[in-house]
Amino acid sequence: MRFRSVGWLVAAVSVVAGCGCGGSGSNNNQLPPTPPAVTSVSPGNAATLVAVNSAVTATFNESMNATTLTTATFTLTPQGGAAITASVIYNSANMTATLTPTSPLAYSTNYTATITTGVQASNGAALAQSNTWTFTTAAAPPPAPTVASVAPASGATGVSIGATLTATFSVAMNPSTVTNSTFTLTGPGNTAVQGNITSGTTTFAFIPAGNLGYNTQYTATITTGAQSAAGVALAQNYSWTFTTVAAPAPTVATTVPASGATNVNVSNALTATFSLPMNSNTLTASTFTLATTSGNTPVPGTITYNSGTSSATLTPSAALAHNTSYTATITTGAQSSAVSV
């Protein structure tokens, strides 16, 4: 009984084994290709503070059919909107598809990237299911400050030589960045004008250390070193020019002897006091003269200038003639110290 049982079991095993080897050698039981999969994405899923100029990438676990990776199968869509315009390229070397937006993304916006089942591997196997992920772009940066207004205005003429310059910005500024190195004033030959800066929240003043020159063009400049309270710099240097008022013409305030005086001492010198400080180089024997009224015979002499009293003195080389009329003349060649010679 025991031997018969063993023989029956052997026969049964033999039949089962034989069933696994039957057939004519066909491949009907070959497994289909494994669907491709996305192994990594950038920006990552749920990423935040993503730069608005970012591209979106997806890397696969096997070589892909590049013709199936298009703007129809790889899309990027803002929340509540339609898919953005972009280009899609596939790099076979690293098995990565890149979606590049044609324009920057919107700030503070949630985007959804989608790769559909229309994407296929090189062996023809399609993605098993659509792959989606989301990310959020960064908030818009603070606006760059601009110079909203200046005084004197750009191109202004007739500006007082004692003028203070002011610049008003579009946003609150960091006072430590608006200094003598970032807010400057220059005159002819790019010569720096010394001055002090007074600060406010949006308005800053440049106060020259002394009077500016008459009838002179100046250039004020605020550089990109000036920053807003949020730390954003001026986008570019801001410059403007203005021209100061013309120098006032000096006048002869008093003379000694007075005009029309008689019985003048023949050894007297002549003195003219001016309304403004004068340029002594312009007070010469050709601009301050003395001559006889009759015959216009010139009287030689020396000219001196007293800056303390703004007066010029003509001292004849010899005593004048008695009982003779003389005419003293100061020409327009005499100039105030405000005018360069």
Physical arrangement of strands within the biggest beta sheet: 1-3-6-5
Mean pLDDT: 91
- What is the class of the largest domain in the CATH system? Mainly Beta
Separation, N- and C-terminal Cα atoms: 144 Å
Poorly predicted residue ranges: 1-26
How large is the share of residues in beta strands? 25-35%
Number-wise, the strands total 22
**Multimeric state of these chains?**
single chain
User: Per the principal axes of the C-alpha atoms, what is the gross shape?
Assistant: rod-shaped
Helix content: under 10%
Largest sheet: 4 strands, antiparallel
Stated plainly, the CATH topology of the largest domain is called Immunoglobulin-like
Whole-number tally of structural domains: 3
Tell me the series of helices and strands, N- to C-terminal: HEEEEEEEEEEEEEEEEEEEEEE
**Number of helical regions:** 1
Radius of gyration: 47 Å
The assigned structural class equals: mainly beta
Tell me which CATH architecture of the largest domain applies here.
Sandwich
Report on the structure:
- The structure is a single chain.
- The protein is mostly beta strands.
- It folds into three domains: 38-137, Sandwich (Immunoglobulin-like); 147-244, Sandwich (Immunoglobulin-like), CATH 2.60.40; 252-330, Immunoglobulin-like (Sandwich).
- Helices cover 6% and strands 34% of the residues.
- The chain has one helix and 22 strands.
- It has one helix at 2-20, and strands at 38-42, 47-50, 56-60, 74-78, 86-91, 96-101, 110-115, 131-137, 147-151, 156-159, 165-169, 183-186, 195-198, 203-208, 217-222, 238-244, 252-256, 270-274, 288-292, 301-306, 311-316, 326-330.
- The strands form six sheets. A four-stranded antiparallel beta sheet has the order 1-3-6-5, with no helix packed on it. It has a four-stranded mixed beta sheet with strand order 2-8-7-4, with no helix packed on it. It has a four-stranded antiparallel beta sheet with strand order 9-11-14-13, with no helix packed on it.
- The longest helix has 19 residues, at 2-20.
- It is rod-shaped, with a radius of gyration of 47 Å.
